[in-house]
Amino acid sequence: MEGVSQLKEWIEASNNIVFFGGAGVSTESNIPDFRGVDGLYKEQYKYPPETIISHSFYVKKPEEFYRFYCNKMIFPKAKPNKAHLALRKLEDMGKLKAVITQNIDGLHQDAGSREVLELHGSVRRNFCTRCMKFYNLEEMLSAMEGKEVPRCDCGGIIKPDVVLYEESLNDGVMSKAVSCISNADMLIIGGTSLTVYPAAGLINYYRGSHMVLINKTVTPMDEKADLVISGSIGEVLHDSV
């Protein structure tokens, strides 16, 4: 594939790589982008995805929120793909310093990556909004069985630790992401359209030598990248490491 040999050369010469990824990394693990409205969507939901996973909708219509959340955003059987495994390998080699992800599925950790900054939270973490008791994904799913809204033993609603529309990103995670990107000598961006803010704005902090963009479609940052590769993020990274 065109550009892979150049990417491989730059990776070999770099010692402070940061990866910034989006939904396209997980779609290769058969996790669909929730913004992709399939043929059955309009039969099942009265509202667009961005409306359903907003904070105000969660408060006003929790039953509809959790129905969408469980059907469209939780995939407990998904496994890491070639992209996740290649990034783990880069970290093991001491080259990759951080994975910054917009995904909430936890697959980077499943692949063995250690320094993962989850900008939008994770389905693996859930908390009671009343007593703050922690629930992992399995416990959350168990709490959902036969119920429209998951509730804690204390009666409070169990809310996933994911950032909904209208909610702010975690300041600590954002600060660390800014620091990692600012200090990187190479930034690999993959599987993201770079249209979701404020996460996409992190790219503007990069000051290193090589910005590489791997995506199947055009992004607003293509002209600023040093290398653009159009193709499968999993195949590209697998062939480059």
TrEMBL record:
Binds 1 zinc ion per subunit. The active site is at 120 (proton acceptor). Nicotinamide binds at residues 34, 104-105. It comes from the Bacteria. Gene3D superfamilies: SIR2/SIRT2 'Small Domain (3.30.1600.10), TPP-binding domain (3.40.50.1220). Keywords: Acyltransferase, Cytoplasm, Metal-binding, NAD, Transferase, Zinc. Its EC number is 2.3.1.286. Its main location: cytoplasm. It comes from Lacrimispora xylanolytica. It catalyses: N(6)-acetyl-L-lysyl-[protein] + NAD(+) + H2O = 2''-O-acetyl-ADP-D-ribose + nicotinamide + L-lysyl-[protein]. This is NAD-dependent protein deacetylase. Its cofactor is Zn(2+). It is found in: Cytoplasm. Residues 1-241 form the Deacetylase sirtuin-type domain. NAD(+) binds at residues 23, 27, 34-35, 102, 104-105, 120, 192-193, 215, 233. InterPro entries: DHS-like_NAD/FAD-binding_dom, NAD-dep_sirtuin_deacylases, Sirtuin, Sirtuin_cat_small_dom_sf, Sirtuin_class_U, Ssirtuin_cat_dom. GO terms for molecular function: NAD-dependent protein lysine deacetylase activity. Zn(2+) binds at residues 128, 131, 152, 154. It is an enzyme of class 2 (transferase). Belongs to the sirtuin family. Class U subfamily. The lineage of its organism: Bacteria, Bacillati, Bacillota, Clostridia, Lachnospirales. NAD-dependent protein deacetylase which modulates the activities of several enzymes which are inactive in their acetylated form.
